[in-house]
Write a structure and sequence with these properties.
The protein is of the alpha+beta class. It has helices spanning about 10-15, 20-25, 40-50, 55-60, 60-70, 85-95, 105-110, 115-120, 135-145, 160-165; strands spanning about 1-10, 30-40, 75-85, 130.
Length: about 170
């Protein structure tokens, strides 16, 4: 089983759509193995966005700074999902980082629409609701950064037999 980190950003929390977003992941058979509401400080976000994700080299210092500002606007919901090929499944469900380009049916396609160009012109971060790990290696680092081992749980759901390729002959 693969694990991935999800962060529902302050804009998702403030809009009151946390339950709707979480239920999408549960409906496809992903299991929540860790979850918490938290309001991290700048150092925590710096490590997440630059130490792990290398955002400055990908998007530039200005985009990095406005992202950190936006993330500090309120609490976030961080959770870890587990399932078959969880990272690519979640990435597909979330949609592209730029909401304007996200397809309908994805989280960003259904709940966000702002372009990078508009956000850059206004000098604001992209309110794109959600962070999802980019690949399995990044997911491992991010999960370790946001959760201790004691905050992650191993349990079986009744849905696992139907959403994973396990034998149903029992």
């Amino acid at each position: 089983m693969e694990r991935t980190l999800i962060i529902l950003k302050p804009d998702a929390v403030k809009r009151g759509i946390v339950g709707e977003v979480v239920s999408r992941f549960e409906r496809v058979g992903l299991k929540i193995v860790g979850c918490k509401m938290i309001r991290p400080g700048r150092d925590h976000y710096f490590e997440h966005y630059e130490g792990i994700s290398k955002m400055v080299s990908r998007r530039g210092q200005k985009a990095f700074d406005v992202t950190l500002e936006m993330m500090e606007e309120g609490p976030v919901i961080a959770f870890v999902l587990e399932g078959v090929e969880a990272v690519p499944l979640v990435r597909k469900m979330v949609g592209t980082t730029e909401p304007k380009e996200a397809q309908p049916g994805t989280v960003r396609g259904d709940y966000a629409h702002i372009s990078f160009g508009y956000a850059d012109k206004e000098g604001v971060g992209i309110p794109n609701l959600i962070h999802a790990s980019g690949d399995a290696a990044e997911a491992e680092q991010e999960i370790a950064h946001w959760f201790s081992e004691s905050e992650l749980f191993d349990y079986e759901t009744v849905y696992e037999v139907y959403t994973q390729a396990k034998s149903r002959k029992k």
